[in-house]
Design a protein that fits this description.
The complex is a heterodimer of chains A (704) and B (400).
Chain A: H1 3-13, E1 24-32, E2 37-45, H2 58-72, E3 79-83, E4 88-90, H3 95-99, H4 104-118, E5 128-132, E6 135-137, H5 139-146, E7 149-153, E8 159-160, H6 163-166, H7 174-182, H8 184-196, H9 204-210, E9 215-217, H10 222-234, H11 249-266, H12 271-283, H13 288-303, H14 306-321, E10 340-343, H15 347-360, E11 364-367, H16 371-390, H17 396-405, E12 406-409, E13 420-423, H18 429-440, E14 448-451, H19 458-462, E15 471-476, E16 485-490, H20 496-508, E17 512-517, H21 524-540, H22 545-551, H23 561-568, H24 570-583, H25 592-599, H26 614-619, H27 629-650, H28 656-667, H29 677-682, H30 685-690
Parallel strand pairs in A: 2-3, 3-5, 4-6, 5-7, 6-8, 7-9, 10-11, 10-13, 11-12, 13-14, 14-15, 16-17
Antiparallel strand pairs in A: 1-2, 15-16
Helix pairs in contact in A: 1-2, 1-4, 2-4, 4-13, 5-7, 7-8, 7-12, 8-11, 8-12, 11-12, 12-13, 14-28, 15-16, 16-17, 21-24, 21-27, 22-27, 23-24
Chain B: E1 8-15, E2 19-20, H1 32-46, E3 57-61, H2 73-80, E4 89-92, H3 98-112, E5 117-125, H4 140-143, H5 154-164, H6 170-189, E6 200-204, E7 208-212, H7 224-228, E8 249-259, H8 260-266, E9 272-281, H9 291-301, E10 309-314, H10 319-328, H11 344-347, H12 354-368, E11 374-381, E12 385-393
Helix pairs in contact in B: 1-2
The chains are: A alpha/beta (704), B alpha+beta (400).
Chain lengths: 704, 400
Amino acid sequence: MSSVEMWRSLLASEDRAADEVVTHARVRDVQLPYGAGRAALITLDNGHDHTKPNTFGPRGLLELNDALDQVAGRDDIVAVAVTGKPFIFAVGADLKGVNALKSKDEARAIARLGHDVFRRLGELRVPTFAYINGAAMGGGVEIALHCTYRTISSSVPALSLPEAFLGLVPGWGGTYLLPNLIGAENALKVIIENPLAQNRQLKGPQAYELGIADAMFDPADFLEESLAWTARVLKGEVAVERRPVDKGKAWDDAVAQARWTVEGKLHGAAPSYVRALDLVAAAKDRTRDEGFAAEDDALADLIMSDELRAGLYAFDLTQKRAKKPAGAPDKSLARPVTKVGVVGAGLMASQLALLFARRLEVPVVMTDLDQERLDKGVGYAHGEIDKLLAKGRVSADKAARLKSLITGSLSKDAFAGADFVIEAVFEEMSVKQKVFAEVEAVVSDECVLATNTSSLSVTEMASKLRRPERVVGFHFFNPVAVLPLLEIVRGERTDDAALATAFAVGKQLKKSCVLVKDAPAFVVNRILVRLLAEIVKAVDEGTPIEVAERAAAPLGLPMPPFVLMGLVGPAIALHVNETLHAAFPDRFPLSENLAKMVAAGKTSVYRPDFTLDPEVVEIFSGGDAPSTEEQVLARALRALAEEIRIMLDEGVVGAPQDIDLCMILGAGWPFHLGGITPYLDRTGISEEVNGARFLEPGVASLPR
Amino acid sequence: MPRTARDVVFVDGVRTPFGKAGPKGLYAETRADDLVVRAIRELMRRNPSLPPERVDEVAIAATTQTGDQGLTIGRAAAVLAGLPKSVPGYAIDRMCAGAMTAVTTTGSSIAFGAYDVAIAGGVEHMGRHPMGEGVDPNPRFLAEKLVDPSALVMGATAENLHDRFPQITKERADAYAMRSQQKAAAAYAAGKIQPDLVPTAVRSAEKGWGLATEDEPLRPDTTMEGLAGLKTPFRVAGKVTAGNSAGLNDGATACLLAAEDVARELGLTPRMRLVDFAFAGVEPEVMGVGPVPATEKLLARNALTMDDIGLIEINEAFAVQVLAFLEHFKIADDDPRVNPWGGAIAMGHPLASSGVRLMNQLSRLFEERTDVRYGLTTMCVGMGMGGTVLWENVNWEGAK
């Protein structure tokens, strides 16, 4: 039975894919210019506006198949073309539907269906043209790749094959067709490199430059010009020239290079990248049939893998939960923020001032007691704006406006009229309490006071105020302009209006906000420090640093633990560790060696050339019970499982999903692990340590 | 020092195919501004020797200047068309003669020396903006009997015209209309119209994207019998029908005007020279007779008679209005000088855009008819006006 027949009967007999938002394939004849003849133009359109892009599930694929049936039999057309709805070409498979696939047979069947339908575009009697008018991802790009020719709009904002990022491979033709079209090196940029770089997207001109499209036109009359180009191609007036594909050493070298990058970044933790690489490597010598069959196999395996389900879970968290924070109070309670105060003029304060000015576009006043420091702080923010101007990221007018928004004052009186004041002063309770008291004397009763503390109690910080209900924690991650996470901390007395205002501001800052209870070190730092403490402990016991460093590799973290420590700074790591030790002495032991390292003024265990600093090695020497990599990893994971369970029991966040969201967005933990809890569940560590999983089977793993 | 007027030439003109207005029409789900933007872009593309920054003005007419025909449509269209931001633009309204007025106004500015090159055109999406949308006529019009109550209903003014010229029967009007359809069909078959049509993308949520490549209103198979059977919606037992009138249409036009010396400098090839123009007012309830006084005024000023005119492109809002013009100038109903390739009854009349369609066709006719020196484009205008432009064929053989 063909895949088409199989899905037809499957959909007819069961209530399958009933909630699929079906992308329709509308066929309409067009008379090509220059007397080139008649073409059938297929429009992909799911009937919604651009906020709900075209995707493909089985029903949509069957509709496209019907459309191709309709045109395949005709002898009065000279070409078939495919384009999208306004602003959207198609963004690939319906991920919700992928999650619903129950068996390997079904997974293989959807892989085959995609191939069987899309490949017809490359096998019709007449040439086919894809007009990539808007966003194109995954299967959307693959539809275009199956066509004989492609045009692209210069305004396409995003084109990608994000499959490996999610835990799949571009398996509806992508791994075979793309390298054979543009060569392995360029294809791997799209299939491997960009997904590895936080799912980076290509813009229209970049896709054109890579050779993905044969012609590029302005958006204003993209379709008309694409049709005119089609006519000229058909009449032989335009010769489509493509760069020849080197199927020799260049192909193998490109694959080897990408393999090295993937291994270096992921240490074998994400099977999708490896599968994609294998497919591209082999695509050189395979026939279409062989190439597509190999993709079917890969998709069948990967769709039925926990890694993919975790990836989809993570994707859903960042796309949905990150935008609608769980537990946030009603938006309508938020008060408008028309002026912002920043207490302090250090580096963090300057970065905050810049961020608030850029995103809120309201006056931002920085204060400091020292004129020189104040000038430096304001100067830093203004300097960063100049850099943005130099890079063309803002216009001269915008730069002038932003600079005029950021001012400094020696007196906190300048905060009068501010609706939101954030402090970024020295991490010391008494200092922060004093600062807040001074601010409260100047500002209105409604003004929200926020603290960027990474480890102090928000409740305690508010306790001496006249109106403690106005205080919230606003914990950013460094660099604040880049990392998308914002932990918003509710103190014991924080009221809904202050909290709602904090969430509204967080959203305006374009941060993904997670509501966190006022607990030591909140979420990300607590988990990272627990991991680090466990690894440092292993080193204290005599495990060589390089062994401990390698131990966490299977987690595919953005950087090994000691590199992270160097980035954060051992002094800060120690400080957070001390805070956590004070709260939970058993689980967060203090490392004397770490304290010594800080005292010795060491900022990293590495020297600038990335070799271990012998003096640091010396500090950590003396242990007599070394562990193996496996042992270090095992104890680290057990520690994480324990800590996260305790955090959930304490109500630090509402659900494991929030932990995962925090780790993905705040610490860059990989998608294919789904953050951390799916990994702990999958490896059985949650049950071993806590007697239960964090998430039910099927949430971020295959259903059982 | 006295100022010297410069010669102004019509270099090139394009238009979108015209569509039928209404929910089933070609452009039902296509924006008006997108139509005129497409026309402007094609105009620029066809004249690659013109540096875009040399365009000094973009004047675009629309009768209903709101929604997608609002926002100072000339300026909005210039920006959307990707012309440099340094190129200004404005909106024009003289109802049906909007694009014609855009040409005469920018043309005059070129002659005056204020511009070197201008784009003039018009757009009307009567599906999205039915005639009279949002108007609020001053009650004094009726209270003080300034105009007849029928003056604002164009079909009724056409019926009034039949009253004024009783010798123009319904049969004559129908015969004229049928000939217009036949002439248009013949011109299409001979490929006369297509070169200046801009294939235009159309979208329908139900049918997907398509491409408009020819005028939708055409009815080449029109017969006298068929016309005789049509309803007369404006009057019981009237004479004006959908068959002997232009329809309600959507479309856009744009043309390129330049000072003759600048055209030469930029390597642009002129097709005709703007000699003079005139607008005149008439009683609003017989607005269709407007071209008569406008043309009289123009001919008199230029010491010409109708005998000097070799080609006439007259807008066919209604057959009776064309026939009234022909009667006045003692021209036969089927005179070959008049609308040789058919007119608005066949192709459509998206109000403010039509003036440039007349010019496109006249300029192409001039290319073929080097024996002709002068031609007219003329049209009647709602609220009782007429406008006529006198053009000289740059390829007139008598000049060589």
